[in-house]
Amino acid sequence: MKKYILSALILTTIFSANEASAQKGFTKLFDGKTTDGWHTYGKTTAGERWKVEDGAIHFNVNADKSQAGDLVTNEEYGNFHLKYDWKVAPKANSGLIFFVHEDPVKYKQTYSTGLEMQVLDNDGHPDGKITKHRAGDLYDLIKSSSEPVKPVGQWNTAEIICKDGKLEQYLNGVKVVSTTLWDDNWKSLVAGSKFANWENWGTFKSGKIALQDHGDEVWYKNILIKKL
């Protein structure tokens, strides 16, 4: 029994050390208890539809609709490595939007300027039938190279790494998107997308990070960022 306990303690210590090493240099964007550091786009505080429950930010579809809107960070980020976990309810749609330029008079929504890594129930939501609109895709621009997404109700781990225009997206440890932003190829991608005629879309090199309110139930947790 003593040997078993000792082995368990050693394994726990090793796991904790590896976990600490993996998170070195990262800071929490979400403290697991409050929406401190976040606000609803175009406002000064977080709308009440975003609730913190069991260590996760939960979009509550039953809360007051006047409290709706995308949740955005107070701070802007340029070169960064972002990690986060997400899960959706059946038939749900959301997204992690980045490089958001917050000017609600000129740009009505976060997606008016920001790029999106799609969060979706691929099988239950209509967007799942649209190429480049499925979970892990760089929304409407680049289809994921594979689809390592977990079933509805299970947690997925996503990562977005952007360094000097080099963009990579990971889903559950698998690189699913890799591209270069703002070069001629990028401009061609945008020209072939729904954003072709959107003023200044995808041109900002720093901005806020947003959790999308698409009117559906979604959860986010373990949101960490490292400035590069």
Characterization of this structure:
By secondary structure, this protein is mainly beta. The protein has a single domain, classed as Sandwich (Jelly Rolls), CATH 2.60.120. It contains 2 helices and 13 strands. It has helices at 2-22, 184-191; strands at 27-28, 38-40, 50-53, 56-59, 71-73, 80-88, 93-100, 115-120, 156-163, 166-171, 174-180, 208-211, 218-227. The strands form 2 sheets. Strands 1, 3, 4, 6, 9, 10, 11 and 13 form an 8-stranded antiparallel β-sheet that branches. A 5-stranded antiparallel β-sheet has the order 2-5-12-7-8, with no helix packed on it. The longest helix has 21 residues, at 2-22. The model is unreliable at 11-18 (pLDDT under 50).
- Gross morphology is globular
Low-confidence stretches: 11-18
Number of strands: 13
Mean pLDDT: 92
- The helix/strand class is mainly beta
* CATH class division: Mainly Beta
Number of helices, counting only DSSP H or I runs of 4 residues or more: 2
Please, what is the oligomeric state? single chain
Q: Provide the CATH topology.
A: Jelly Rolls
- At CATH's second level, what is the architecture? Sandwich
| SSE run | HEEEEEEEEEEEHEE
Which properties best describe this structure?
2 helices; Jelly Rolls; single chain; 32% strand; 228 residues
